[in-house]
């Protein structure tokens, strides 16, 4: 008779991010926990915008740590690293880190003479998802290791080229600003056209002519977009604005593959109201987000603004754009006009669709210490403090019953109402100095069913111990590490102590999975 393995019994699912039992000081002087190499690499990878300075680490230090971990594990655990890199560029949506990781993976395995494990060629191809990325990988390789490019790198790039190169890709990404043009890449990797794309051979030949003989290069007759683009380029400069403002102007720009970035150069004049209104229908969601200020300064009409708003608030467009929620928050914070506020709020809500509705009572702690105010990347106006607050608030709003707390040197409850806007609640968070995580947990933990901490984990010393030790062992504690530093603030990978990483709302699904006993694996294995 079954006594224990019954339907009501649940397996204890532990975090895949595991500490080793060894301790080290955090950057704030607290007693932290070291993690195994896979865990350290995962947390760093999902938070590492390459060359990005953080509060405690220089960009070079982080990049070196990332490359060192990839090279080590590429030899010790190649299957795992290959899975990480493919997932990182796909669902993880981390472009540059995955490209750097693939290059370091191949270099380490070639240097070690490793022959078993995933093919280096497939790993390279798996991280190249956009037409400009083959050139990015080549640029990184030649800058780091010279112009002797090994066959697996060439073959992986060639596989990606056959998949990615098309007429619109050529127009958008094959520009004189690039060190490696499409023609250069085709020459270097000897990419043959895809046999399932009969038009690609003519396109490749044109890309080579365009690179080496730009004055005489003629697009193939079968390439309708390129032919329309060439025809548009032949219009005299003095007549171009009339083409844009005339009947069918928007359709003609779209047929010729003209992007908003290229339009101003073609016009050889300012992007005025008419120019923006002509190109808006063909712009993608994130291009629209980037240009809200430009639309207002040009004075686009309410009708054009309605088109923009509808696309911003469309759940399918939000999903297709694959952007982090923080992009919408940054746009909301810096948009000059109130007419964009509601569609951006809707877009943010759609992008947080994976945040689970937690049952029972939850304590949610959001780190607002000084180190959290570093920007997410050199190109971002948003910081980790606000990123943490967005997720913490979204969790609280979706939970059955939650206490939302901000902490630093001090800590305080953040008030909110069910159904309230995430962006409205965000305005109530402050800047709170140091990182007394332990004291915040001790002050606010009151027999909750779970504790969730969104932080960079650089907790200060507290004689009561680390933050996770303040919660009974049978109560799960979930930590989201938003920075990827080496030392964590508590144990993980044992019992009810879990650590996740990254800036994607998909990570928050792990709470429900862990508590249901459904999964305790790496995201690409789930």
Automatic annotation (TrEMBL):
A Pfam family of this chain: TROVE
Main localization, broad class: cytoplasm
Domain of life, source organism: Bacteria
Record key words, sorted: Cytoplasm, Metal-binding, Ribonucleoprotein, RNA-binding
Localization of this protein: Cytoplasm
Residues covered by the TROVE domain: 24-360
Database matches in PANTHER family: 60 KDA RIBONUCLEOPROTEIN SSA/RO (PTHR14202), RNA-BINDING PROTEIN RO60 (PTHR14202:SF0)
Stated family: Belongs to the Ro 60 kDa family.
Protein name listed in UniProt: TROVE domain-containing protein
């Amino acid at each position: 008779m079954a006594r224990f393995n019954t339907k009501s019994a649940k397996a204890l699912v532990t975090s895949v991010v595991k500490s080793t039992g060894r301790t080290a000081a955090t950057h704030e002087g607290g007693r932290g926990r070291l993690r195994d190499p896979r865990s350290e690499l995962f947390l760093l990878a999902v938070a590492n915008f390459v060359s990005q300075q953080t509060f405690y680490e220089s960009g070079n230090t982080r990049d070196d740590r990332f490359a060192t971990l990839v090279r080590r594990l590429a030899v010790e655990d190649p299957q795992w690293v290959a899975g990480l890199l493919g997932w990182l560029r796909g669902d993880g949506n981390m472009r540059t880190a995955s490209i750097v990781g693939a290059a370091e993976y191949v270099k380490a395995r070639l240097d070690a003479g490793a022959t078993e494990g995933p093919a280096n060629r497939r790993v390279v191809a798996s991280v190249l998802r956009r037409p400009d990325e083959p050139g990015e990988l080549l640029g990184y390789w030649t800058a780091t290791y010279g112009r002797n490019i090994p066959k697996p790198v060439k073959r992986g790039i060639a596989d990606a080229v056959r998949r990615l190169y098309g007429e619109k890709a050529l127009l958008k990404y094959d520009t004189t600003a690039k060190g490696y043009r499409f023609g250069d890449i085709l020459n270097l990797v000897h990419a043959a056209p895809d046999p399932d794309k009969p038009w690609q051979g003519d396109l490749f030949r044109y890309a080579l002519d365009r690179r080496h003989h730009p004055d005489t290069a003629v697009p193939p007759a079968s390439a309708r977009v390129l032919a329309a683009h060439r025809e548009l380029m032949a219009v005299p400069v003095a007549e171009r604005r009339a083409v844009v403002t005339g009947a069918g102007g928007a359709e003609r720009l779209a047929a010729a593959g003209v992007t908003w970035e290229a339009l101003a150069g073609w016009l050889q004049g300012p992007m005025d109201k008419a120019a923006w209104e002509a190109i808006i229908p063909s712009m993608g969601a994130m291009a629209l987000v980037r240009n809200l200020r430009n639309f207002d300064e040009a004075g686009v009409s309410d009708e054009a603004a309605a088109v923009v708003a509808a696309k911003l608030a469309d759940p399918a467009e939000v999903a297709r754009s694959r952007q982090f929620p923080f992009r919408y928050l940054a746009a909301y914070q810096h948009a000059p006009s109130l007419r964009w506020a509601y569609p951006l709020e809707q877009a943010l809500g759609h992008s947080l669709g994976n945040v689970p509705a937690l049952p029972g009572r939850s304590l949610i702690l959001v780190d607002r210490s000084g180190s959290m105010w570093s920007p997410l990347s050199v190109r971002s106006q948003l910081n980790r403090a606000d990123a943490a607050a967005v997720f913490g608030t979204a969790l609280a709003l979706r939970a059955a019953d939650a206490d939302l707390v901000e902490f630093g040197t001090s800590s305080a409850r953040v008030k909110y109402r069910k159904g309230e806007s995430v962006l409205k609640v965000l305005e109530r968070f402050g800047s709170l100095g140091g990182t007394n995580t332990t004291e915040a947990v001790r002050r606010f933990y009151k027999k909750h069913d779970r504790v969730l901490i969104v932080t960079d984990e650089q907790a200060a010393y507290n004689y009561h111990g680390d933050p996770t030790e303040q919660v009974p062992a049978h109560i799960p504690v979930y930590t989201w590490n938003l920075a990827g530093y080496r030392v964590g603030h508590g144990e993980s990978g044992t019992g009810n102590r879990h650590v996740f990483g990254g800036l994607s709302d998909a990570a928050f699904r792990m709470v429900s999975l862990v508590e249901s006993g459904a999964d305790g694996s790496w995201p690409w294995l789930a």
